[in-house]
Design goal:
335 residues; mainly alpha; two-stranded antiparallel sheet; 15 helices
Amino acid sequence: MAVNFDLTVIWAFIIAFAVFAYVVMDGFDLGIGILFPTFEVGPERDRAMNSIAPVWDGNETWLVLGGGGLFAAFPLAYAVVLPATYPLIIAMLLGLVFRGVAFEYRWRDPDHRRLWDAAFTGGSLVAAMAQGMTLGALLQGIEVVDRAYAGSWFDWLTPYTLLTGLGTVAGYALLGATWLVWKLDGPSQHHARQLAKRAAWATLVLMGGVSLYNLGLRPEYAVRWLTAPEIYFVAPVPVLTGVVAIMLLRSLSVERHSKPFWLSLALFFFGMAGLGVTMWPFVVPPGLTIWDAAAPERSQVFMLVGVAITMPLIIAYTAWAYWVFRGKVADEGYH
């Protein structure tokens, strides 16, 4: 469990931060797409779309940073993970393409709006499921021989990856629903709150299922969570997750606006922290640590200078965009 804060560890945390930022920001966009068929055709769907219109494309900046950072800082991990999950990555990218095209064309081609709405939902669902299954494929372990992927084309398709995929879909639906609780009012907000309650229970059940599955997935995972002295360091993660879950369910039972969304983000944070504890220090379990897969030190230093300049700018303009569009959404847009 010892952590040495060298350049490789710093880069691991940078990529983890980028992935977390993408998951929570683009997660509610995808969640709204997943829930879209439950919204009433007309103003309710339009308001849901308008709530993410100013920010949805900028959210994917973090996906580029996470993927590009993995390629640059951990090239061996990139070279192993992609061949192991090519079908999932292709499905995710196609889903994001369909989602993006549908988002724009449903306004410009109203005669085929039903088709674009279906593409928006389908693309969001496929992208979310693919992301969750990719995570599951990584956690269950990737076969590496001579620093190259040695598995088959369908090693990623297992009951465990299906479970992680469903958990991601439920979690994104929770983020999308709580975002709409914050951004809408009236009957639409009430509808979003009811959806958020169902999504919250589904997310908690699936998170619990994945966590229990992890204990039997690999022996080192059980050792990390169930033996001393490691258990004393990792115990706060499930405890705090339980506290956040209770607070989230309570906030959805009363007339709260932004609080359910922030608590949903906290739930994702502790969930990802748990995954980080499970995997550490492996970037590709069970054989490649972050140091095994790291780029040369000079490359890491060179890239760190660039990230030190660009990441604050990304955070600044993202924060500014969310601040400008911080109000509620009416039929004509933000107010």
